[in-house]
Amino acid sequence: MTEEQFWSGLGDYQEQILNIITNLSSKTYVGIVNLKNKQTWWSQRVVDFFGLEKNVFDYAMEKSTVKVHPDDREKYLKGFSDRMQGKHLNERFEYRLMTGKYTCSLFSAYGQIVRDEQGEPVLFVLVSENHGISDEIDSVTGLYSEEMFDEHINDIIQRKVPAAILKVGIEQFSRINVLYGVEYANRVLSEVTYLLRCAAADQGFVYRLSGPKFALVFKRKNKEQMQKVYHFIQDSLSDRLYINDKKVPLRIAGGAFILENYAMDAIAVRSRLTYAMNHSRHKHHGELVIYNDEIDSDMHDNLELISVIHRDAIEKREGFFLCYQPIADTKDGEIRGMEALLRWKKEPYGVVPPGVFIEWLEEDPCIFDLGNWIISQALRDLKEISKEKPDFFVNVNISAGQIERKEFRDTVLWLLKKSGLKPEQLCMELTERCRELDVNFLKQEIDFFKSKGIKVAMDDFGTGNASLALALDLPVDELKIDMSFVRGIQEKPMKQAMVQSIVSFAQNTEKETCIEGVEDKVLLDYLKKYHATWHQGYYYSRPIPFNEFKTLLHDSEKKQTQLRRKLYEQSNHFRSNSLHWM
Fold it and tell me: Which one of 132, 162, 449, 569 has the largest count of C-beta atoms within 10 Å of its C-beta?
């Protein structure tokens, strides 16, 4: 059979073949334009994504631009048009498509032209890749993806197979990205993958999780065997990793979980692994922490709750809402801003504060979309207040999982533009985990947002990695002094010296300061002598829902008006008496 005979027998199946080929990858979108009759065929993934009624219709670009980010539509149309004309065929062009009300994904596309025997163009083929979707296989390492890891764990639980799971995270990997570039960093990940495969041998599976994190799943291993596997990985990555004949020593943290109870799911397993790995990182200097050895009954109950919250965050984003705490000007006590704080509520659990669950969410890719929702909601509420208080501002906490994503910059600018608010009305507070990122990378991100007029604050200053040395390197606008330095400050000279030194340092470097934990009037009066810029704490209010915050703000405004009137009357009375005695 000749090739021509082979293809001639497939005429009735061509569309099915095209759809099968283009749907083999969940992140690939294909369009074919017939340049003779001006009709376009879109693959089924395109039809589903754009909500089209059919695969083939007369050539038009209007419908395909509906979901293109408003700022990228001109670039998208030009990129499409140029390639239809045979220009830049081997070059990719990038654009963003809206994947949710407040979220977008980065796409890249390239086109090719099919010509007839006379060299005339007859077909134009456009292939787009959605970088916001993960395939079953990670393209950098060749490992199974995070989604496949979840499927595997759920299958193990369903079949009640004894298993041991190890989670490994590379410390300060962003430094490699910044210093040597993405291509070099990907080579490092590829070499790490080889060593992890060696560690798993033929006894386990290796998965690529988000960022520089991996999971190894074994059928049967006890705690001693897991320690042995981890020490092999630890030694290999610190001493046997070479790129271009140069040693690249890597430090890791690791958490393990021996699966013995099958009344859970993959999310519950991941929560336990994250808990253990965080303990490895922060309390055990990178040594392996086995969850089964560390846990107590109270934490076990918390983790069951975290699993429910985690599922809501990933699947439905239900139960989350924002509370706001006032930020007051130290000069006159007037409330001029607010901090947005995430809460979760669901029966029978009631309202759950973020301290219980945010540590786990920050480790999950879902924190990016959830964080974008927080920014969007905070700006929407701020806009309502700004109708009467045009200079009012909101502080929003930013996680490492957000600021690491390359599309985070564009997302923040788009949300701000959509709100119609001034850039200086948004202040992004870097949480402690942000400060674990590479300093040079973090400086670049802060410089970018500051160049757009957005303020950046360092939260919980003085704790963890938030030292004065770090503040010298990072061009933040504000230092938020952690409440631990304020608690009992009247009786503790060391705390007094610390707060005074932070405020003095900030004033000398033209930074603002906010003292947190102002609990009562006595403490407020004492703290005034430090001349910080802002005060925040229960004296002004606990974090409260937005409607209550508006009422609080209205009542506070009335009190401030009454106080100003009283001072004005006292001033007039004093002036009148002075004239009387002249």
Answer: 449
pTM equals 0.61
Spell 409-444 as b/e; 16+ CB within 10 A means b: ebbbbbbbeebebebebbbbbbbbbbbbbbbebbee
Tens digits of residue pLDDT in 452-504: 999 999 887 766 544 566 677 788 999 998 888 888 888 898 889 989 988 99
Name which of 337, 340, 510 is nearest 425 in CA terms: 337
Show the DSSP H helices in 110-207 as ranges.
146-159, 174-180, 182-200
Q: For 32-43, give the secondary structure using H, E and C.
A: EEECCCCEEEEC
Q: Which of 251, 170, 256, 183 is nearest to 213 (CA)?
A: 170
If residue 29 lies in a helix (H) or strand (E), which one and from where to where? strand 28-34
| Upstream peptide bond of 348 is cis (omega within 30 degrees of 0) | yes
Element (H, E) at 30: strand 28-34
* Percent of the chain that is helix, strand, coil (3-state, to 5): 50, 25, 30
pLDDT at 466: 46
Q: How far is CA 432 from CA 362, 368, 397, 467, in A?
A: 11, 17, 10, 11
Q: What is the pLDDT of residue 571?
A: 58
- Residue-wise pLDDT tens digits, 332-345: 899 999 999 998 88
User: For residue 199, what pLDDT is reported?
Assistant: 92
Residues of the chain with pLDDT under 50: 296-298, 465-466, 574, 578-582
Those residues whose C-beta lies under 8 Å from the C-beta of residue 495, and which sit 6 or more positions away, are 485, 486, 488, 489
Residue 482's φ and ψ, nearest 5 degrees, are -60, 145
